Amino acid sequence: MSDHPSTYEPKTGVEKWLDQRLPIVRLAYDSFVDYPTPRNLNYWWTFGGILSVCLMIQIVTGIILAMHYTPHIDLAFNSVERIMRDVNYGWLIRYVHANGASMFFFAVFIHMFRGLYYGSYKAPREVLWILGCLIFFLMIATAFMGYVLPWGQMSFHGAVVITNLIGSIPVIGGPILTWLQGGFAVDQATLNRFFSLHYLLPFVIAGVVILHIWALHVVGQNNPAGVDIKSKEDTVPFTPYATVKDGLGMIFFLILFSIFVFFLPNALGHADNYIPANPLVTPAHIVPEWYLLPFYAILRAIPDKFGGVIAMFGAIAVLFVLPWLDTSKVRSMRYRPVMRWFFVIFVVVCLGLGWCGAQLPDAPVVPGLPSFTLFDGEFNSYLWLTRALTLYYFAFFLLIMPWVGLKEDPLPVPASISEAILAEHAKKKGA
Amino acid sequence: MSEPATDHGGHGDPNRRDFIYIAAGAAAVGAVAMVIPPLVDQMNPAADTLALASTEFDLSKVQEGMQVVIKWRGKPLFVRYRTPKEIKEAQDVKLTDLKDPQLDSDRVKKGKEQFLILVGSCTHLGCVPTFGAGDYGGWFCPCHGSHYDTSGRIRKGPAPKNLAVPDFQFLSDTKVKIG
């Protein structure tokens, strides 16, 4: 908390000398040792720490990969194959980097759903939430450009499809597209600049992460009860309580990570990306990486090209204004009996959008079921399922959030964190 | 610090400090404005990229009923030798049936209707359409299911426009220059 006085006392002469010149040890001590943490944090709160580790893993493995990678259309694919076959431990480092991206998104989705459920975006945490949305957007841009670098078939045609989205903007779209690609098509210039930006953006992310943590330490952490910290009884020091809890969560997360790296290294990738890029042949079925599938599904759900692009970016943009869409005074959905059900449906809808994004739009959802044509597509097709899910996605933020917040009768909210914990203990004893 | 010797508040004549303040500010804005164009324009196609903008093709390489795909400006270019049946199909379509109405005769050169030359890049999101597939005998885009007819015009699916016809001219009966 901002009003938390520093309790750091330099002990040795060196620490005292440094503390008067650059109080960096004091900053670390106040932020990660003595920092008062709500005592009711559950394991959903360990993903912030996990995400910091993800970013560090990506930066370290990425810098190493850049030492062996060549950003040239004739050499890129082979340099990646050389990393896999010849560079010492190259296979390990690349598999950690490639699967690390998936793990990063897996963790960030949980982190975001957690923030959504417990109302971590509400006052006074709006800026904290917006910085998080910005990190998410930067992550998408970074991941997309990273996926282009191996210069396989999926890399190339993914880059073609996504850059062409920009070309759909009326009037100025064409010149912007040429400017972005550095030519008339995705080519050497495009690969070279994507490499440059893919190297840069993680450090930009790291910078925004620092702002994110700064904002967090100004307003203090939210907690499962969603009530403010009121007294010393509500908190425990960050170390050892939060560090150990984060550590345990991280161990389980790294076990999952290792399972993918060592046993299923290509399970989340696409086989077509092991074919060198060929601008003259498009793979039969183009799909982005799994973590972008929900947004890809929204893009395809709209019959108009530019409209699809607007909807896809809108799906991310709506997150930025979320703090002002939720009208409820209660933060945690624990005490919002109606809203929590809409939340559960929302999670299912997001997973459903991801599923639809991987299917062919014309394919029937239930094979063999009789169907009819509705406007421009079969009713029993992923097209219409995607449209229904897209509608809920936007309705959740734009209609349900403001409306339920006004109409709902929330359950009684505990007066303090310590009271919430005592009530829970009493309930457990009674049961 | 001592008090400034002269008053440089809002009232009275602008003094030297005000002048320096405004001049420095204007210079800074001007400098930033001058720096932006080079930083932005360097991303546009370089001179060597633009220099590769045209290509020549020998039409005797393509047989009737087939197409040859060549690379032009980094994109595939379809050179299709249409059969009389395909030409007739393309010419008989009513303009009202088209999403992006255009006559077949506007897409080929007069007297050389058999040769259809198109940029092989789907106008939806730039995938390469498959030859001979789809409901209209032209092309089918595998990415998001756009169907093109034997004139390369969009008939069904999300693509908004017909496949683009590049600028081209016949140098001789069998030689064509594109771009």
Q: What does it look like?
A:
The complex is a heterodimer of chains A (431) and B (179). Chain A has helices at 13-21, 24-32, 47-68, 76-85, 90-117, 126-148, 153-167, 173-181, 188-219, 238-263, 293-301, 305-320, 322-325, 339-357, 382-407, 417-430, and strands at 36-38, 235-237, 373-374, 377-378. Chain A has a domain at 1-7 and 32-288: Up-down Bundle (Cytochrome Bc1 Complex, Chain C), CATH 1.20.810.10. With 431 residues, chain A is mainly alpha-helical. Chain A contains 16 helices and 4 strands. In chain A, helix 7 packs antiparallel against helix 8. Chain B has 2 domains: 1-44, no CATH class; 49-178, Rieske Iron-sulfur Protein (3-layer Sandwich), CATH 2.102.10.10. In chain B, the strands form 3 sheets. In chain B, strands 5-6-7-8 form a 4-stranded antiparallel β-sheet, with no helix packed on it. In chain B, strands 1-10-9 form a 3-stranded antiparallel β-sheet, with no helix packed on it. The model of chain B has no long low-confidence stretch (mean pLDDT 87). The N and C termini of chain B lie far apart (70 Å). Chain B is an alpha+beta fold and 179 residues long. Chain B is built from 3 helices and 10 strands. The interface between A and B is medium-sized, with 34 and 28 residues.
